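Late entry, 2-acetamido-2-deoxy-beta-D-glucopyranose complex.
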Amino acid sequence: MYSFILSFTALLCLRQHYDVLAAPVLSAQNLLSLDPYPNKPRVTFRQDGTFKITVFSDLHYGENPWDDWGPQQDVNSAQLMRQALTIEKPDYVVLNGDLITGENTFAENSTTLIDEIVAPLNEVKIPFSSTHGNHDNNINITHIAEILREQKVAPLSYTRTAPPGVGGEFGPGTYWVPVYADTQAKKPILILWFFDSRGGFSPGANSKPVPDWVDSTVATWIDQQTSIMNTAWGPAENNRASMAFVHIPPHAIQVVQTTLNSTINPGLNADILGVGSTQATTNSANSGKDDAFWETLNTKVKNLKVVVSGHDHGNEWCAREPTQDVIFCFDKHSGFGGYSSAGWLHGIRSFVLNTTVTDVKAGIESYVLVEDGTTRDRVFLDRNYV
Ligand SMILES: *[C@@H]1O[C@H](CO)[C@@H](O)[C@H](O)[C@H]1NC(C)=O
Ligand SMILES: *[C@@H]1O[C@H](CO)[C@@H](O)[C@H](O)[C@H]1NC(C)=O
Ligand SMILES: *[C@@H]1O[C@H](CO)[C@@H](O)[C@H](O)[C@H]1NC(C)=O
Ligand SMILES: *[C@@H]1O[C@H](CO)[C@@H](O)[C@H](O)[C@H]1NC(C)=O
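Prediction complete; structure with ligand written out below:
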């Protein structure tokens, strides 16, 4: 009940702000300043032209609060976060879903786990934002409750919610973040897209399963947002690149696993993808429709350099998805909570952009850093990457 009230009030509050961005006709003034974060510092590349994003995925805080083991996993995860932030010194951090193991948490204090999760990020004052996963929706937790808490306790959180009617029930966490070459630039050169793949269970006593794919209303929203951006900043083709983050991998990734080559697609490949491991877009509840989200994302968002998911803790490879000709990467299971297996290790995936300032079609370097301090699975993601 608490979550329902919170979410309704939140949507009312956000409505006014989002109508500005969603309006089909914008004044010239508004177009020039298309900035969803007028009151936050701009996210910018470094002076040397590079920009590093570090992804923490599947942190799974809050497991077994009734014993000693559970809280100890969160201590270990926080230590991993601090270690990785010290080594990587990223310019932006993404928390790519399953921040909390919702089925283990209590109604009265489930979102206080968000305070623990963002503490290492608050300490180093690095801008960041989150996607949310199937474990972030449950009887005592919702995506919207986590988002509101994060916005409240993390000054450099760039997490937002989609306008009313976009994202489907219990899937509010869809938004984009502009990244600029420098603080004075008139328009961004990189757009970070974040999508809510929902899943898990609805809150409260009559809890029901929530569809685990990006709702098709998001496709319409992408179409609209890219059109507004093109009007405001000019066509994307030679002006800006994009990256996308979504907790559950798109369904089209499933078949890609059968064509991996460990030289080209290095990294742990221990989770066989099947029912539950990718977005269930083909579910009959989706009336057998095509994956409107996946189609539209890849058609409308130009220079989409990579799509990044977590969810399957045993996978950490990158590969090209041939139907949409786009690179996909699993990130790396970061949390000591959540399922794992001997030898998988925990870690992070980083992406390093360089020369994007002068060439938005340039490639991106990516690698995984694991808990023992070693890096692995280094790949260069560019037009030649297969
Ligand atoms: C939800 O929270 C209530 C109140 O703390 C608790 O009694 C219940 O066990 C929790 N339910 C689940 C499924 O965790
Ligand atoms: C949340 O509340 C439960 C039950 O009241 C308690 O056992 C647990 O330690 C609390 N967790 C946090 C993170 O405060
Ligand atoms: C994997 O890719 C490498 C590098 O392109 C190539 O030399 C090798 O033959 C490939 N292996 C298989 C089994 O296709
Ligand atoms: C970025 O690219 C430039 C030009 O190729 C190179 O000199 C520089 O070392 C690169 N910087 C990093 C941090 O990789």
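The helical segments are 2-22, 28-32, 69-88, 112-124, 143-153, 217-233, 253-256, 292-300. Will revisit in the morning.
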